[in-house]
Design a protein that fits this description.
Blueprint: E1 2-6, E2 9-11, E3 15-18, E4 25-30, E5 33-36, E6 40-43, E7 48-53, E8 56-59, E9 63-66, E10 73-76, E11 82-83, E12 87-90, E13 94-98, E14 101-102, E15 106-109, E16 118-120, E17 127-128, E18 132-135, E19 141-143, E20 149-150, E21 154-157, E22 163-167, E23 170-171, E24 175-178, E25 184-188, E26 191-192, E27 196-199, E28 205-214, E29 218-222, E30 227-247, E31 254-256, E32 265-271, E33 278-280, E34 290-293
Parallel strand pairs: 1-4, 2-5, 3-6, 4-7, 5-8, 6-9, 7-10, 8-11, 9-12, 10-13, 11-14, 12-15, 13-16, 14-17, 15-18, 16-19, 17-20, 18-21, 19-22, 20-23, 21-24, 22-25, 23-26, 24-27, 25-28, 26-28, 27-29, 28-30, 29-30, 30-31, 30-32, 31-33, 32-34
Length: 295
């Protein structure tokens, strides 16, 4: 393979880097402190690219990384890094670190790599001035750690593989979470100021667990034809101003209210659909209206 090491650099303008259409394994090492006053664009080829940029990146404009084909990886930024505009990662299948402050949107799109598994170990920006757009492919996607603050309406769409995602981030607007045809398991913690929408897709076994604080007015959950489970716990849950509606579709579905507190919602409506469904009652009486249909 090839290796492209960098040390310290400072550029008053835009920077574009390309590994060419190499089929080799290429490693790009960025160490020390780097400053680009304009935009920074990094483009890979059809081989495997490993971008090691666990350094103090400072980009005045936007950062775009497109590693094209192959099972590619990136470890980006120290917490002191600042990106003035958007950060866009395309076909970066393994993200082992992403820190720092981002002025615009954070977009991670792996839909073009189809069945390659995607792993997001630590997406932990200090703050994002725009939205989060995370899109997986048809392979298995795993989001282990998502923290930080996102100002804009955000969307997590993990595609059709067997997916799992855990978020402890703060969303200052709404959050959409979408599964696909595979088995999906979502855990939503943190603080969300807007509405929450979850579509579990049509996998055989799907689940969403709510924790943290939701300050928006609505929580909407759709299930599919498989076995869908909604639960609360792990992290204390509170959404006293939110009307929660769940439409669980066909299959043996479970609504686990064991850890649901008496004032945790403004109201609850659950349509279990067709199947031998299960409602696990809370430990204490609920002070808000509850409607259960097709149970």
């Amino acid at each position: 393979g090839t290796s492209t090491p960098w040390k310290r650099f400072s550029v008053a303008g835009d920077v574009s880097i390309s590994t060419g259409n190499s089929t080799l394994t290429t490693t790009i090492n960025v160490t020390g402190t780097g400053t680009v006053s304009g935009n920074l664009n990094i483009t890979g080829g059809s081989g495997v690219e490993n971008l090691n940029g666990n350094s103090a990146f400072n980009v005045g404009g936007s950062l775009s990384i497109n590693l094209a084909g192959g099972a590619d990886s990136a470890n980006l930024f120290e917490p002191s890094s600042t990106i003035g505009g958007n950060v866009t990662l395309t076909n970066v299948n393994t993200v082992t670190g992403l820190d720092g402050s981002i002025g615009g949107n954070l977009t991670i799109n792996n839909s073009g790599d189809f069945a390659i598994p995607n792993t997001y170990t630590a997406i932990t920006p200090t703050s994002v001035g725009g939205s989060l757009y995370l899109t997986g492919g048809s392979g298995n996607d795993t989001l282990t750690t998502l923290t930080g603050s996102f100002a804009g309406a955000s969307n997590i769409n993990l595609g059709n593989g067997a997916n799992s995602a855990t978020s402890s981030a703060s969303f200052l607007s709404s959050l959409n979470v979408l599964g696909g045809a595979g088995n999906d398991a979502f855990t939503i913690n943190g603080t969300i100021l807007g509405r929450v929408y979850v579509n579990l897709g049509h996998g055989t076994t799907n689940s969403v667990t709510f924790g943290g604080t939701i300050l928006g007015s609505s929580i909407l959950v759709y299930g599919g034809n498989g076995m869908d489970t909604i639960a609360f716990g792990g992290v204390a849950f509170s959404a006293g101003s939110a009307r929660m509606s769940a439409f669980l579709g066909n299959g043996v579905d479970t609504f686990d209210a064991t850890n649901l507190g008496s004032n945790d919602l403004a109201s609850l409506y659950v349509d279990f659909g067709y199947g031998a469904d299960i409602f696990l009652p809370p430990g204490a009486a609920l002070a808000f209206p509850v409607t259960l249909v097709n149970l």
